[in-house]
Design goal:
The complex is a heterodimer of chains A (350) and B (78). Chain A contains eight helices and 18 strands. By secondary structure, chain A is of the alpha/beta class. Chain B contains four helices and no strands. Classes of the chains: A alpha/beta (350), B mainly alpha (78).
Chain lengths: 350, 78
């Protein structure tokens, strides 16, 4: 069971960068006006930020990371660790984290690597960084999280295209013996891999001309094998079943009841799904922020993006947070963390 | 034990696009012109929050009528 605790690491700040180009789901004319209204009402997603052609995670991550490091006044030579969680790397190889080490002007003594996860990725990356730092050997770290999801969606697939937005965040972590313990509960189920998948483009199914040919799977769902496939019903069912159970198990094991948390910040999947999870947990709506309306589902960036856009004022004071990610893999996890004031930078549009 | 009529009332409450009275116990709800894939998600959410019953995608796909849906929910209730 991957329920564990890390010590002596605090969050010092979070920043986020998004592409300046936006799309409104009310303008998504591939579906009828009535469908658009139902889509926005059900998912809570109105606007999404969409990357320009060639704009990548490292482009946004460099800006988010540099702004945060500069704002905190960190000496770049003191950053010992860079963890990047993404499913949209610049290249097949090398790792994008190593590209970012150079672009953020970090030293050669900085460990840098990628983690390949999506919706659950922020919680996994934070657990990895905090576990590496907790003994004090590594003093400062940057966790970069995000995806250019728009690259993978077909505009003629109403089940994916209007849901996803692009964003990348940076989170600064520091070794601090006064920081309170952070509790994690991480889970995975590869039997659900087909629920959210891009079939072609890697080694199992290398890209061929067929990978790019659009097929109609059902009315309104026209996509190619290189595109993101999403089984919305199965993902919905999985999320409302497993996410609350994971969170309650973490609360029980860590002896910190959910009601002791000031905030429940979930991966921003869609409003109906997230609200179902919140209601099952009997958690207060005013303590459950959403950034879906302005950004859509932004993969591993969604939790920190929601914090910087909806909780920036509160974050300056002591708070206890329950953060939970769930989705592609299938992979899911939660973390319970106390903070004593950290910087939330305004979202940067690039 | 909630009746099928109670389930219909809850579905009508959640899905504003369905005119009142259209849903009957033997209605093949997925064949209705107003039906959308979004409504399937709303029904899963309803079963979860109102009855504490988790419906899978296959459950929804195997249901033809409201009666079918009611039977699945009844069989899973604790």
């Amino acid at each position: 069971m991957a329920v564990f605790t890390t010590n002596h690491v605090r969050i010092s700040g979070i920043s986020a960068a998004v592409p300046s180009r936006t799309e409104s789901n009310l303008d998504y004319d591939y579906i009828s006006e009535a469908e658009r209204k139902l889509l926005v009402k059900t998912t809570g997603i109105l606007n999404r930020h969409i990357a320009a052609e060639g704009q990548t995670v490292t482009d946004l991550g460099e800006i988010a990371g540099n702004k945060l490091i500069d704002h905190l006044g960190w000496n770049r030579n003191e950053v010992d660790l860079l963890v990047l969680v993404t499913q949209s790397r610049d290249y097949f190889l090398p790792s994008s984290a190593v590209l970012l080490q150079e672009r953020l002007k970090l030293s050669h003594n900085c460990a840098a690597f990628d983690i390949g996860l999506g919706c659950s990725g922020y919680v996994y990356a934070m657990s990895t960084a905090m576990a590496m730092m907790q003994n004090g050997g590594l003093r400062k770290a940057i966790v970069i999280a995000g995806d250019i999801s728009s690259y993978g969606t077909s505009r003629t697939d109403k089940s994916t295209y209007p849901l996803f937005g692009d964003a990348v965040t940076a989170t600064a972590l520091e070794y601090d013996t006064a920081a309170l313990p952070v509790h994690f509960n991480l889970q995975s189920d590869g039997s659900g891999a087909e629920a959210i998948i891009i079939h072609d483009g890697s080694l199992r199914h290398p890209p061929t001309p067929e990978s790019y040919i659009l097929h109609e799977h059902e009315p309104g769902i026209v996509r190619a094998r290189r595109h993101l496939w999403l089984n919305g019903l199965d993902v919905f069912s999985f999320s409302v079943r497993e996410a609350p159970a994971n969170i309650m198990q973490l609360c029980a094991q860590s002896s910190v009841p959910l009601e002791k948390h000031d905030w429940l910040v979930m991966h921003q999947a869609n409003m109906l799904m997230n609200e179902t999870i919140r209601k099952k947990l009997k958690f207060l709506p005013e303590k459950t922020p959403y950034s879906l309306n302005d950004f859509g589902n932004t993969s591993s960036a969604s939790i920190p993006l929601t914090i910087v856009t909806k909780c920036s004022e509160a974050a300056t004071a002591p708070q206890r947070w329950m953060l939970a990610g769930f989705g592609v893999g299938l992979s899911w996890g939660s973390m319970s963390i106390s903070t004593h004031g950290f910087v939330c930078m305004p979202v940067i549009e690039v | 034990m909630p009746s099928v009529q109670e389930l219909i009332t809850k579905i009508e409450h959640e899905i504003e696009e369905l005119p009142q009275g259209v849903l009957q116990p033997d209605t093949s709800f997925r064949q209705l012109p107003e039906w959308s894939s979004m409504h399937a998600l709303i029904i899963i959410a309803l079963a979860e929050t109102e009855y504490n019953v988790t419906l899978s995608g296959n459950d929804l796909r195997s249901c033809n009528t409201v009666n079918d849906l009611h039977q699945i929910i009844e069989s899973r209730k604790g």
